[in-house]
Amino acid sequence: MYLSVVFFVVMQVLSYELLPGWTSGIQSNGEAISKMEVAALLALCQVVAWSFLIGMHLYGRCYVVRVFISDGSDNKLYETIGWLTRRQWFVSGDEERACQFNEGKTAGHYDAKTGLTLMEVNAPYYSQRVSNRRLPFILDYDGYFFDDNTSQD
Q: What is the crossing angle of helices 2-24 and 35-62, to 10°?
């Protein structure tokens, strides 16, 4: 979440650097860039910055970093990430609607020059739907699970 804020600030600085070109014109390889092109660059920087920031905020509200399961009942406490803190969501067994497994796989691109497959992703996850909540919880399939209630004798 912190990196999304850093990315947003960088995009805002890029936009701020483009603003003087709005009135004086920017020179690129000896050629002046028109005001319309500067406006398009400003708009593009703003759209990318805001889209990334909003997308990371939504993802953070869905991605479960910790699950507490109560003993003897179906009640769970999901913990998600926020901007500076974590948020907890109490879910009773009656509120759980559907849990769907997603492969989270992309084929990638084979590069014949290097013999490597680039951009291949293998990130399976569960999508847990809950009533009274618009977005599903994302539970990482390859996550680490610890049982704090066990004692070593």
A: 170
Which candidate, 83, 4, 14, 19, places its Cα nearest to that of 50? 4
For residues 86 and 31, what is the distance between their CA atoms, to the nearest angstrom? 50
29-55 as b/e: b if 16+ CB within 10 A: eeeeeeeeebeebbeebeeebeeebee
CB 91 within 8 A of CB 75: yes
The amino acid that residue 113 corresponds to is K
138 within 8 A of 64, measured Cβ to Cβ: yes
Write out pLDDT tens, residues 74-133.
Answer: 888 889 987 778 888 898 888 888 888 988 887 777 778 888 777 778 888 889 999 888
pTM of the predicted model, to two decimals?
0.65
